[in-house]
Write a structure and sequence with these properties.
- This protein is an alpha/beta fold and 216 residues long.
- The protein folds into two domains: 5-53 and 120-210, Rossmann fold (3-Layer(aba) Sandwich), CATH 3.40.50; 55-112, PRTase-like (Ybab, Chain: A, 2-Layer Sandwich).
- It has helices at 5-13, 34-45, 80-85, 90-112, 136-146, 162-171, 199-215; strands spanning 25-29, 49-51, 54-59, 62-71, 75-78, 124-128, 152-159, 174-179.
- The strands form two sheets. It has a five-stranded parallel beta sheet with strand order 2-1-6-7-8, with helices on both faces.
Amino acid sequence: MFQNRFAAGRMLAAKLTAYANRQDVLVLALPRGGVPVAFAVAQALHAPLDIWLVRKLGVPGQEELAMGAIASGNVRVLNDMVVQSLHIPDQVIAAVTAAEQRELERRERIYRGNRPLPHVRGRTVILIDDGIATGATMRAAIAALRQLEPARIVVAVPVIPAATVDVLRAEADELIYVAAPERFFGVGFWYEDFSQATDDEIRDLLQRAWRDQDAN
């Protein structure tokens, strides 16, 4: 389906033309795989690009189960149903949050340096990843982003399983995708080149985008 993430981004951008050349639009990428896709989208739409870092707060001993998430801008959301049903004490939540916050801040330094967070409130945010499998990470990203009061959240991905479409549509204001196969096999199956982007490559793409934005 897609030659690589940049090609996927160009195909995705063709579905997002309604958002081109608009002053209120901000493209946010989920690192790392979402950045090359979002870079191509932002270029095509003539929209600013930034990153949205999210860290899942896993239940100790059941780390794949999320009791919440934290994100850029000191945002934290908790899944009250999980916390209450498992009787997770406040000190455990605080300890897991602190550990994940350190990792989030480390990644912020690597990718963003001293650049301030983008202004989100009142804007239309296009939230991009290179694909969605279960939707857990994207749902956490949406929930955290809502705390900063954007006017609209548009989730845009090249590929998503058909079974996950309705789940994401219920969370986002709009869901845009290129393909939603019934038989999914994983995000990487739909890319000829799905090699992992390095931190240096991601930082370079962001720096290129930010130089162009600052010049304008």
